[in-house]
Amino acid sequence: MRDPYILPCGHSFCLRPCLLAQDGALKARCINCDVEFETTKLRPNHKIALQICLTALQEEVEEANEQEQTEEQQNQNKQAEKDGETQIKADAIKANAKGTLEMHLQQLKELMISELDPGQYAKAENVGALESAMKKLQETSCKALDSIIEKLQMDSYESIDELTQQIAELSIEVAKIRDVYSSLKGITQKQPASQDIFNPEVDLVNEGAAQTNTSAPIVSRTAKLLTRLINLNMAVNDLRDIRTSLQDEEEQSVLQYSRICEELNTAVATIEAALTRSLKINLLRVEANDISVQRDLENLRFGIGEARKVLPSIEDIFTLVYDEK
Predict the structure, then answer these.
(1) Looking at the whole model, is its pTM more than 0.85?
(2) CA distance readout (Å), 148 to 142, 192, 211, 212, 306
(3) Which helix (H) or strand (E) holds 283?
(4) Is the pLDDT score of 95 beyond 70?
């Protein structure tokens, strides 16, 4: 029912076409009791109009909630698929990296056995110390690599440039390790090495940096939710405007304490409370995500520091081996 009017007999109908069949009509007929009245006796039925407005608003809110739930479910399904693909890629990268490091360690042992003459050295503990240092280097590199892979599984919206810089520093450390291996080849001087064995590790770290830049940002979901909150807030403002326009000066004192007015105020207060609660929850989620990213960056810095500690020990061992030779 649109534009409801009340008749002297107590029945209410829409003005057009139920009461007035055409423009300029002077009399209106009640559909229920079939009595004619002067059009001057017709009065707008504000109570029914408010009920109709409130019902329409509730239907819009329910429809918006259903649509939001549907979109949220779709987003969860997409995120689950994306997380599954990311986990598969991360597992493959970890397995490949660990296999590569083990292969490099085995190649280094074979070079030490075949290229270096054990009879030239009186102290066998030098070789054992070199192996221990290489194992420690392998463990440190694996930890740093695991930290990088964990960044691929997180939804971060900032600090990406800082994370990329840390990965670049780790690549520099790996390059230094490659130079140490080149120094080892210079000590043997019997046959040229096949290829730089640490190049796959550098490519792997660079690949991890490239994948980190493709992590799904949470800021897009937050912006989408804020847009919905703004739209609902606009609907509440429209509801207030309708309520104010329907309250004439003569009827304002009566409607102020009526049941419909109380229900209307309750609906407005409920929507405002829901908007405020949703906004606070999303702000807390953003702050918690930022703290988690900062903590993981500290762990990555620790891993790089451990890798730097290993390099001097390897260089000292090479110096000792060269002096004994």
Answers:
(1) no
(2) 10, 33, 10, 8, 15
(3) helix 259-324
(4) yes
Question: Is residue 77 pLDDT above 60, yes or no?
Answer: yes
Residue 292 Cα distances to 156, 165, 288, angstroms: 9, 18, 6
Q: What is the pLDDT of residues 8-49, one digit of tens each?
A: 787 776 666 565 665 666 677 777 777 776 777 777 777 777
Residues listed for the chain: 325
- Cα–Cα distance between 73 and 66 in angstroms, integer? 11
Cα angle for residues 230, 232, 236 (degrees, 5° grid): 115
Q: In angstroms, rounded to a whole number, what is the distance separating the alpha carbons of residues 84 and 105?
A: 32
Pairwise CA distance, residues 81 & 78, whole Å: 5
Residue 107, pLDDT > 70, answer yes
Are the C-beta atoms of residues 219 and 156 closer than 8 Å to each other? no
Task: Say if CB 47 and CB 260 are below 8 A apart.
Answer: yes
Asked if 167 and 91 touch (Cβ cutoff 8 Å), the reply is no
Contact predicate 150/320, CB 8 Å: no
AA identity, residue 61: V
